[in-house]
Fold:
Amino acid sequence: MNIIEVTNLSHRFSDGTIGIEGITLSIQEGEFVVIAGRNGSGKTTFLRHLNGLLLPDTGAVRLGGVSVSRDIPRARQMVGMVFQDADSQIVGETVFDDVAFGPENLCLNECEVKRRVIKSLEVVDLIDIADQRPHLLSGGEKRRLAVAGILAMEPRILVFDEPFSDLDYPGVRQLLHQTLLLHKAGHTILIATHDLEKVIAHADRLLIISDGKVVMDNAPEMIIKDVEAFGVREPCASRLGMEIESWLN
Ligand SMILES: Nc1ncnc2c1ncn2[C@@H]1O[C@H](COP(=O)(O)OP(=O)(O)O)[C@@H](O)[C@H]1O
Ligand SMILES: [Mg+2]
Structure:
């Protein structure tokens, strides 16, 4: 089943800049998709249409058959989005309260809110510091807190926009590990990055965006050798001639 259907999607900003142009694609439930492209190619603009943070000039995004523009609250619940700047997403006085904010706004009862917060904090391994003040967390912990906040909304689709930028190596490993568990649990995963090295071995599909258009869309091993033409660094292991699957650890 296609959980995401994008047809002829274009967005022009008010100053006339074209963000994305004529994007058409479908994503199946449970896919793990990596979106790459040089800075300014349109990755963030594209992702922001998936939950109605931006609305199309032309075209449409449908989630499970329903247009995002027609029902934005539904889209926000279906698509959980973790942004690059984890700090700006912090809203609570404690780690627990921060994660509770989303489900509380869904008007769920207290018991259900608590259940979801505990479950989400367990997934990202922050349950032991549920009482801490979020601003005291490390960069990696803040990113995982942001992930817990979206998990508590129980979205079927998880979108990560440059999730690894400014994380140290343990932070990257932990976030990647948790993302893979979420994929195994059935979530559809989209990750935008200009750094393929960290994730590509796990992806089912690689989309390359350039100048607002999808210029390649295929299994990673089919196109990994051709990405440099679009400002994306080919991973070292690929350059050395290693099969993508063999980098999995
Ligand atoms: N709010 C905005 N106003 C005007 N132009 C924008 C805005 N946001 C992004 N852009 C432009 O849209 C294009 C795509 O940007 P973006 O989607 O952020 O790319 P990426 O995430 O791939 O780096 C770029 O040319 C960028 O400068
Ligand atoms: Mg971006």
